[in-house]
Amino acid sequence: MAKTQPDPPTAAESKRGLRRQLLQARQDAARSAAGSAGDAARLAAAAVAYFTGRGWPSCVAAYLSIDAEPGTAPLIEAVAERGAGVIVPVLRPDGDLDWARHRPGAEITTGPRGTMQPVGAPLGVEAVCGVDVVFVPALAVDHNGHRLGRGGGSYDRALARLRAADSTALVLAVVHDDELVEELPAESHDQLVDGALTPSGLALFDRKPPS
User: Fold this and answer.
1) Is 40 helix (H, G, I), strand (E, B) or coil?
2) Is residue 28 assigned to a domain?
3) What is the value of pTM for the model shown?
4) CA 131 to each of CA 22, 41, 68, 120, 193: distance values in angstroms, whole numbers, following the listed order
5) How far is CA 173 from CA 2, 105, 199, in A?
């Protein structure tokens, strides 16, 4: 009897396996405090270099980085220093994202799933639709705009809301240099991003047309 070949993994299965690998890689990298601080400063510098001369956004959506994520504190400071408002996510019990205003040095607290969030009053889930730039966390992103998150779907909901509002906001995944990759598995509900911000620079994607 001929051997039957196992079915190839689905995109969802491939994403789960890749997510585990990337989280482990971040943990194994054991980035030094000096290296992490340097990368965070370079992220901010890359954003400043890109937006200088193009016009600074009036308001951005960012996030408060945790664990081995690329550090966003210098990025938020750079944005605020140039007069832009900053909102950051507040994770709701249903997994959706509310938003609250934030400024460097303001009080923050631990939220669900180990997130960090402001203590101020939430603005509502639609607040993201009023920003000019959205910096989103990611474990990896590919050159066609596919982003791999942690699997909760929170940012896919927020970005779908943004697109439905016909927003022209620039959506950028924030990743380490080695997490900008050629190709990632994707599902139909995944929301594309416009580019990536890494310590080496800000790159916008020239997406392939749908096949």
Assistant:
1) helix
2) no
3) 0.89
4) 30, 23, 26, 18, 15
5) 46, 24, 12
Instruction: Note whether 165 and 173 are within 8 A (CB).
Output: no
CA distance 78 to 185: 33
Is 23 a domain residue?
A: no
Q: Count CA atoms closer than 13 A to 121's CA, side-chain side.
A: 1
Residue 64 contacts residue 72 (beta carbons within 8 Å):
yes
CATH of the domain at 70: 3.40.50.10420
Is the residue at 198 inside a domain? yes
Q: Which residue has 């416009």 as its token pair?
A: 194
Query: For position 193, what pLDDT does the model report?
Result: 98
Contacts of 25 (CB under 8 A, 6+ apart): none
**Number of domains the chain is built from:** 1
Residue with tokens 């959205």: 134
Distance CA 121, CA 13 (A): 38
Tell me if 4 is assigned to some domain. Answer: no
Range of the domain at 65: 33-204
The residues of the chain scoring below 70 in pLDDT are 1-9, 29-35, 207-211
Note the pLDDT of residue 33.
Answer: 59
Q: Are 170 and 197 in contact (CB under 8 A)?
A: no
pLDDT single digits (tens) 25-80? 887 765 655 568 899 999 999 999 999 989 899 999 999 999 889 999 999 999 99
